[in-house]
Predict the 3D structure of the following.
Amino acid sequence: MKIYRTSRISLGNLHSQKICVLGYGSQGRAQALNLKDSGCDVVVGLRPQSSSFKKAKKDKILARPIGDALQGATLICFLLPDEFQKEVYDRYVQPILNPGMTLMFAHGFNLTYQRIVPPSFSDVFLIAPKGPGPKLREAYLKGDALPSLMAIHQDFSGHTKKLALRYAKASGCGKRGVFQTTVREETISDLFGEQTVLCGGVVELMKMAFETLTESGVSPEAAYFECFHEVKLIVDLLHERGISGMAKAISHTAHYGGMTRGPRLVPFETKKVFKKILKEIKSGSFAKEWILENQKGLKKYKRLTQQNMDHSVEKTGQKIRRLIGY
Ligand code: NAD
Ligand code: MG
């Protein structure tokens, strides 16, 4: 993978771009503010009734209804939820696209599954910060950055990579390295990671472990500390020091117990499930399912969300986090 560092890159023509950031949520707010603080000309585009107008006003950043915000824009950043990007593209962006305009994405869902197919005369790049928006803003304010992935999807002008790197630097995604990938690779790996490990696997493991302990008569408080609270502490060690570094910081008993019991929980056969999930992502069947779920009014999404909210670990967690001052 090619890695770029932006310390010696000037912001150059990024300063002459009129940047329209669509959305003012997790990434939209962080990137719009970072770009503004880097001296860029930024306007945020929002739905007329959006509650984000208040947030933007408080942050002293210019925000307009999407149609107005797009007037004269040369760089359009899609920082809206993935499931609404096509709607906004079709209605507002596609009709005004001209050669010389650049489209920016922070995740490749809509490009990979061809929900958005920009005309060949558009430059299109992706900068995906490897972390949530508030962390991106926090890092920028400390003079730091988050690492990021970059992909050049279309390069009509021949200058897209230069602009993407400038964008990475100005938005707080440059200093720690910009790793070049493709839009498809970013999309597939991002979806796979969140489904199998980050948001899928970890949560199910924690819930089932908590259930097992409490059903055996262990108090919910003790079960919560062991199966939920401490996850962060171990993950921080893994994040900073890797598996071997983490192992050095835990007891020999924990290390031995983990190495011998872990594979029983995640046996080799589980790889078949990983492969199946990856296949669903690659073939576009997960994307289709998610789009359909949105069109059907998110019934399953809401039911599963409620199920998690009702889980006993949530009630215990709320109580303990309050008690220990989180
Ligand atoms: P978000 O849900 O936080 O953004 C919501 C914003 O979009 C709000 O300002 C809201 O008013 C606006 N919005 C919602 N629905 C809209 C609609 N129908 N029309 C117009 N505006 C609408 O989104 P996010 O999590 O910041 O994600 C933005 C993009 O960044 C996505 O492509 C996502 O995959 C990507 N990304 C997110 C993260 C993250 O940490 N959240 C990390 C990397 C990449
Ligand atoms: Mg994602």
Remarks:
- The chain has a mean pLDDT of 97.
- Residues 107, 190, 194 surround magnesium ion (ligand 2) (CB under 6 Å).
- The chain is about 55% helix and 15% strand.
